Amino acid sequence: MRIVSGKLKGRRINPPKNLPVRPTTDMAKEALFNILNHHFNFSELTILDLFAGTGNISYEFASRGTESIVSVDGDYGCVNFIKKTAKEFDLNILPFKSDVFKFIEKHKSSYDIVFADPPYDFTQEQFEKIVTDVLSLNLISEEGMLIVEHSKFTKLEHLEHFSFEKSYGGSVFTFFEFATEDDDDEYDDEDDLEDETYDTEED
């Protein structure tokens, strides 16, 4: 796993092999950030990374200059690895150990981008709950964006505030916005490779 752009471009991240994760592939990650690069100034963003796993997506935002990143995962090993890596690279990432659904219910802040990468074997209902909870509880700002990564077998385009989706290998990114554009051409990218207890603890 490597950081694909920004000040840490090319740096490899080597998480422990026993973490219960499925990191976003470098190909999909690079294509995702090519889309976001056309829409956001990374240095001004606030980010909430749900089901953060190894911190893969959080590191990409931090490498591009984002200084307000909250990473949430329910696994102690993942949270500790994110803390260790953020300290090593001097990145402003705040990790939380929490059940993600409980975190969403209790959290009061809003963000420019909420990225959620649940286990692909979540049920359709669990995926839909992530979307409806994040949007109904206003975890994204009026001009913000929710991005959910999932497999091609999960369908989310029927949900309210759906904007568009992109596929890369076996991964699909579905985008939700309160204020959608009339024309999604601005999101097209020539590099897209289609088909391919609120028990929060800050140890």
Automatic annotation (TrEMBL):
Keywords: Methyltransferase, Transferase. PROSITE patterns: N6_MTASE. GO terms for biological process: rRNA methylation. Residues 1-21, 180-203 are annotated as: Disordered. Pfam families: Cons_hypoth95. InterPro entries: DNA_methylase_N6_adenine_CS (IPR002052), RNA_MeTrfase_RsmD (IPR004398), SAM-dependent_MTases_sf (IPR029063). Signal peptide: none annotated. The keyword Transferase applies. PANTHER family: METHYLTRANSFERASE. It comes from the Bacteria. One of its GO terms (molecular function) is methyltransferase activity. It comes from Myroides pelagicus. This is Methyltransferase. The keyword Transferase applies.
